[in-house]
Specification:
By secondary structure, the protein is an alpha+beta fold. Helices cover 24% and strands 36% of the residues. The chain has four helices and eleven strands. A hairpin with a 2-residue loop joins strand 9 and strand 10. Helix 1 crosses helix 4. It is globular and about 40 Å long.
């Protein structure tokens, strides 16, 4: 399967912040991580990926997607997301670890953690995820950190810094729905010139993978 092609990002300000009027948000990326905007070759592509240095075949990533809420409440959206992933939980491929509701920069948000085991190029990874879903301006902003479990805590501050710096900067609507429905293989093999993967893409396709295994 052909990986998604990354467009070079030219939206980084002199302050080091990434800002997009089209997507309607800004944040400060981790130092020495690469910020990339994905070309919308598929409607369900992530909007922005921030990727760190690959270690032992896997790179930490923070991905951000924007989805119109269409009047759906945050609690309902989170419930729907978990329901879609439940078959993966039932099959033992994904474990929900925790969730909490809080405010992030004044916006309502749901933060959850999960982990799962994934295989890419005959190499197994235990990947842990921490995701914040923010509801603002009739949109859901999903900010998701993915890393190997053994390195997860070491880079967690980078995720917290992105959350703390995240701001809504525009009301412009991004018409594309971004539910991350890529195959697992894409998520761990995307080459963007720094030779690594955007791990969060794994999580969003796990449901389809689980269903396939049961057919």
């Amino acid at each position: 399967m052909t990986p998604q092609i990354f467009a070079s990002s030219n939206s980084t300000e002199e302050t080091g912040n990434y800002a997009s009027q089209q997507l309607g948000f800004s944040f400060h990326p981790p130092d020495n991580w690469t910020v990339q905007e994905l070309k919308k070759t598929q409607p369900n592509a992530p909007d922005v990926a921030v990727v760190g240095t690959k270690i032992e075949g896997f790179a930490p990533s923070i991905s951000i997607s924007v989805e119109n809420s269409n009047g759906t409440l945050l609690e309902e959206h989170v419930k729907d997301e978990k329901a879609r992933l439940q078959p993966a939980v039932d099959s033992g491929r994904l474990i929900f670890l925790s969730d909490e509701t809080k405010k992030i920069n004044g916006y309502d948000a749901e933060i959850s953690e999960s982990k799962g085991e994934f295989l890419s190029q005959n190499q197994g990874f235990i990947i842990k995820f921490r995701e914040a879903i923010i509801l603002a301006n009739d949109k859901f902003y999903a900010i998701t950190y993915a890393n190997q479990e053994k390195y997860f805590d070491g880079e967690l501050q980078n995720f917290d810094d992105v959350l703390n710096s995240f701001q809504i900067v525009s009301n412009k609507i991004n018409e594309s729905s971004t539910n991350f429905t890529f195959e697992i293989g894409i998520g761990v093999t995307i080459a963007i010139g720094i030779g690594t993967a955007v791990g969060i893409l794994i999580k969003r396709k796990i449901l389809k993978k689980s269903q396939t295994l049961h057919e």
